[in-house]
Amino acid sequence: MAMLEGIRIVDLTTVIFGPYATQMLADLGAEVIKVEAPGLGDISRYLGTGIPDPTMGSIHLTVNRGKRSIALDLKKPDDATVLRDLIAGADVFFHNVRGKAIERLGFDYAGCKALKPDIIYVHGTGFGQDGPYADLQAYDDVIQAASGTTSLLPRVDGDPRPRYFPSLIADKIAGQFGAQAILAALVHKLRTGEGQAVEVPMFECFSAFMLTEHLRDATLDPAIGPAGYPRQLDPTRQPFPSADGYLAIVPYTPDSTARLMGLLGSEALLASPDYEAAKATGQHMQLIYSEIARKTPAKTTSEWLDLFAANDIPAMAVRDLEDIRDDPHFIATDFFHRREHPDVGGFFEMRPPVKYGAAAPRDLGFAPRIDGDGAAIRAQLAAAKE
Predict the structure, then answer these.
(1) Fewest CB atoms within 10 A around its CB: which of 114, 134, 287, 342?
(2) Of the residues 11, 27, 171, 371, which is catalytic?
(3) Which CATH superfamily hosts domain 8-210+352-385?
(4) Active site includes 244?
(5) pLDDT tens digits, 46-56
């Protein structure tokens, strides 16, 4: 039996934040009914190349896997009735429509609670709805900028231009919070029988994630130092060159640092006056990283990794994004599992990374076409009314 079998989620979210959250719950066995606009559907369908169908893009195959799709125009009374019927039979209703717009459609919390008193009503917002940014639009770039994240790379390399991380990191982190919020609300409902309204704001979620370490000494009142975690912002903390590539090496503890310096033939550094002086002010890792970078070109990546593994030094080869599917660990664990989508053909599915002892691995559902399950869902709703 799947972990969330029997849980129904009506998903009116778009792009990445919401679909990523519900994808994780679909992986656990929840029935996720994806409600999309007729015609073009969710924009996440077009993220990545879809061949031959542009509505079945490569990212859609991941973030919407295991879901059912129904197309509804909520401005049309008949389609709005279908959504009301879906909510009346659901455990969770999740949307990322701005508050005033969803209220005009009649699907605010009060309206949905009238349909299902114990509904878990989850609103994915850009910003907390009790603050001055409540009505602003939010995308990943906006949240990276507003959270201070775009100021991190300048602190590392000295280039003053603010820059984005090359990832939809804010969307995905908010999605993780969204999945967590739904699971917590489901546990609460199982214990008490109560539904509730849940707000998942991107700005606050991502800021909490990034500032866990980067608020640093500004956490205290009064602050005893600047924001920013020095170890992460050290410009010398970068992958180290080898004779044929690069590798990551992490001398994290005093013991592993001493062993690493011994393997590099650099024991003298740890006893030097410069090192002792830098250590007294917390600046010693720059000397360590610089010394590693000076010594690692002497051997190949493979030679270093063999030596480090034998001496319990954390290290890995730097792998290019294009080569990630060739990683021997991923091959051994079948992490990139090849499947045949009935509409798209062959594709690689990343297996859910968490393993549960009480639930056997299972084949996951495929990402749906727009309204691919619409007729069946409507028929089920009609049968339930008879």
Answers:
(1) 342
(2) 171
(3) Crotonobetainyl-coa:carnitine coa-transferase; domain 1 (3.40.50.10540)
(4) no
(5) 998 877 889 99
